[in-house]
Design a protein that fits this description.
By secondary structure, the chain is an alpha+beta fold. It has 5 helices and 23 strands. Helices cover 17% and strands 34% of the residues. The strands form 4 sheets. Strands 7-6-10-2-11-18-16-17 form an 8-stranded mixed β-sheet.
């Protein structure tokens, strides 16, 4: 080595002092010739990323919801590197980092804005629209005149899709170091066009004949329609928010069942039966079947960052398996508890009926209306049971059902 050679040479020429000078020069030469190379940091060997599945539906979103989204376009991971100087006497380190650009579809209906974003359960974008890691975000609200994203246009050229009528976001060069150098599992807080805090039947069924003021779904702050038959969606809602559907000259009419008000109509006195005898107005028909009332409602809890919540109806639980209703809606805890109580009350009394015959029905009375009976306490809710019969179910405070027959 140079240190040994120059030390011996310095000793022969200059004695002890020459030996020290030769050793110092030899050490410098050794450091230059035999210096260790820079270290290599962790590096991905496979830069391809996983893709989303074909045929996956993009739900309709209403109100405020937290949705996972579907990746509809992406680039390969982009690798970058830089050197970090080591401490005194330590070699430098080459550090590799990765980023990705991709688009995520959120809703097949227009949205007003995107709120918070979570990545692997951690906050990626805050309420102030600030990304917690490097990169940029662009939001396309899902209207027919949305432009083509410039990054997708640069990658695809003339065949770049605009994904019109589909709300989506584009991440450009999103830093992936905090997520294991992979695209994380994302979820988005979205606010649909037409209102952040309410969901109306006009949004769910736009072709239905509705009143000037579209009826709102009680306590519902958001709703997700995953696709499939519209009847299935309405049936899921009807378990919790009772609906009235009528097919008439004006088309399909859908509305929530009536609520008590100050102008409740009282039915006329009951007619005599065909044999001349007077029907007993207090006659009740009660099935011997025991109705199992739903005990709990599962929903998305707005106050817990849209995590799944459960609210149970008031009262002691019965033995056996608990009957649960699943509603893909955003609710507050108090609203969900009220809906659970109302569902349980309706189920407890739906097996009791009463018959009431009238000669003419007031035009103000329609299926879903609340009525009174003369000289009898309680309120009654009518529902369709085939023409010309209207079957009524009692409100939660009344334990009987009513059948009104027009003669």
């Amino acid at each position: 080595m140079a240190t040994i050679v120059l030390t011996a040479l310095g000793t022969a020429i200059g004695g002890p002092i020459g030996a020290s000078i030769g050793a110092l020069i030899g050490q410098q030469v050794d450091a230059r010739i035999f210096a260790p190379g820079g270290r290599e940091g962790p590096r991905l060997r496979e830069l391809a990323i996983s893709t989303s599945s074909y045929g996956q539906p993009i739900p309709r979103q209403f109100g405020r919801m937290r949705v996972p989204g579907t990746i509809i376009w992406s680039t390969e991971l982009t690798e970058s590197k830089h050197k970090e100087k080591g401490r005194k006497g330590q070699p430098s380190t080459t550090v590799y980092s990765y980023s990705a650009s991709f688009a995520v579809a959120l809703s097949s209906t227009p949205i007003a804005r995107v709120g918070r974003i979570w990545a692997d359960g951690n906050l990626l974008r805050g309420a102030q629209d600030d990304l917690k890691v490097g990169g940029s975000l662009r939001v396309y609200r899902g209207f027919g005149d949305d432009p083509v994203d410039p990054l997708i246009a640069a990658a695809k050229g003339n065949v770049a899709p605009a994904f019109r009528d589909c709300a989506y976001v584009v991440f450009e060069d999103l830093a992936l170091g905090d997520y294991g150098n992979r695209i994380p599992a994302l979820s988005f807080e979205i606010f649909a066009a037409g209102g952040d805090d309410t969901v109306s039947l006009a949004q769910l069924v736009p072709d239905a004949a509705l009143s000037a003021a579209p009826p709102l779904l009680a306590y519902t702050r958001g709703f997700a329609d995953e696709g499939g038959p519209l009847a299935s969606t309405l049936a899921a809602i009807d378990q919790v928010v009772p609906l009235v559907c009528i097919s008439g000259s004006n088309g399909l009419e859908i509305a929530p069942r009536g609520t008590a008000s100050s102008d409740i109509v009282t039915l006329p006195a009951q007619l005599s039966a065909a044999d001349g005898s007077q029907d007993d107005a207090r006659h009740k028909q009660r099935s011997g079947m025991t109705v199992r009332a739903p005990a709990a409602l599962r929903y998305y809890d707005e106050e817990r960052d849209y995590q799944t919540g459960v609210q149970r109806a008031a009262g002691a639980r019965r033995a056996g398996r608990e009957l649960m209703i699943d509603l893909p809606a955003t609710l507050t805890a108090s609203g969900a508890r009220q809906l659970a109580d109302d569902s349980a009350n309706r189920a407890r009394w739906q097996h009791e009926t009463m018959t009431w015959r009238v000669g003419e029905l007031d035009p103000r009375i329609t299926p879903g209306s609340i009525v009174r009976l003369p000289d009898m306490p309680g309120q009654w809710l009518l529902r369709v049971n085939g023409h010309p019969v209207l079957r009524a179910k009692a409100t939660p405070s009344v334990t009987r059902c009513l059948v009104v027959t027009v003669r």
